[in-house]
Amino acid sequence: MADSIPLAHRGPSPQRFTGSRASSPRSDQAVPHVISLEDVAEVAKDIHPRWKRELYLLLEHPTSSPSAFIIHFAATALIVVSAAVTVLETIPSSHAISGSVWFGLETTLVVLFTVEYIARTVAHSNTWVSCFKWAISFFGIIDLLGILPYYLEIALGQDTSTFFRFTILRTFRLLRVFRPFRYNNTILLTIEVMYLSFRRSEHALLALAFFVVMVLVVFSTLLYFAERGSWDETLGIFINSDGDPSQFASIPAAAWFVLVTITTVGYGEITPRSFLGRLITVPLLVFGLLLIALPTFVLGREFSAVWDLMKESEAPTDSQEERYQPTPLSSPLVRHPGAARSTWDVRLDTLAADAMMPLGTRNRRQSERDRAELSSQITELRAIVEAQGDMLRRMMELLDGKGKQKAVQFEGEQSSPWS
């Protein structure tokens, strides 16, 4: 599954909130998407012949037909079974099961995944460029790495799980569990919002990382000289006051203790014994609390800001609600093709400019926009009141004119008998 479902068809992509300048309407193109976003239906239109296009839709577009949905469901089930088998093989109690059983299960799964991989390669072989893009895509590489260790075992005639370099390849098959979630709108948007939160917090995080490195270097050096003890020429090591080998025999060893302390992990395998060493450790305990709190606050604030902006711009208009009709193949993992929304861009240009601004500046700009909107509403109300006033004056003039005519007519009737 090399091509991802476009998030623009399911709501506004949070990538639009990465604009760094208010005057740059296309600043969203400066930041690459976390996930490749190509419209499967649009790509399928350019695929020829027809059978290859049908194969492409069958494998890449679960809502194109009932058969495509069934294949998607079956592939997802195979991925879950494959991950379960990989995990169960490592349980000690499962070692009593014959190896031929595990080999048979793995062979069956690998054959099915191989057929799927070949079918997807054929479906993407409309041109050599599209085939190459599929081969080097994230899911294409994961699919290949998932079946490659099995064929290496067959070629080498031995179990590759005993070799560390092949064991790493075998673990890649577990990454296939991420494939079904490419159709889940919430998960994809959450991943992108997390990515953008890191992007927007990069300066604060870099400053914090620099501070951590400085603390690590300074305090590990202080602890090394405070806890290293005396050098024993016979043993060739540092000895502490109790006659035991020093646990702070080098600055890297002391740096490990500092890192474990400031991250509040506290393994306890290395502890300072002298009063001076424990006194130096006290500031590390306080700094550890700040190290956990500050990134959590910064990332949490930025995540909330991007998420709120995305949700605010995601509210569909009445015409969009009428145009959206759920398909019969309702599934939380499947995108509804009728959920296209194409009228976000008017408001998102302003939101994109605001998203990268500090919170105070963003609030001030929002207040200015609110005041401008209120002023516009007051102006409109004043125009309406003036129009109504003109209408009332005309009515009064009309009534006054009719009253004068009646008065003249009445006076004429009163004066006629005397004449």
Automatic annotation (TrEMBL):
Residues 69-304 form the Ion transport domain. It is a multi-pass membrane protein. The keyword Metal-binding does not apply. GO terms for molecular function: voltage-gated potassium channel activity. SUPFAM superfamilies: Voltage-gated potassium channels (SSF81324). One of its GO terms (biological process) is action potential. The chain crosses the membrane at residues 68-88, 100-119, 131-152, 205-226, 246-267, 279-300. It is found in: Membrane. This is Ion transporter. Residues 15-27 have a biased composition (Polar residues). Keywords: Ion channel, Ion transport, Membrane, Potassium, Potassium channel, Potassium transport, Transmembrane, Transmembrane helix, Transport, Voltage-gated channel. Residues 1-29 are annotated as: Disordered. It comes from Phanerochaete sordida.
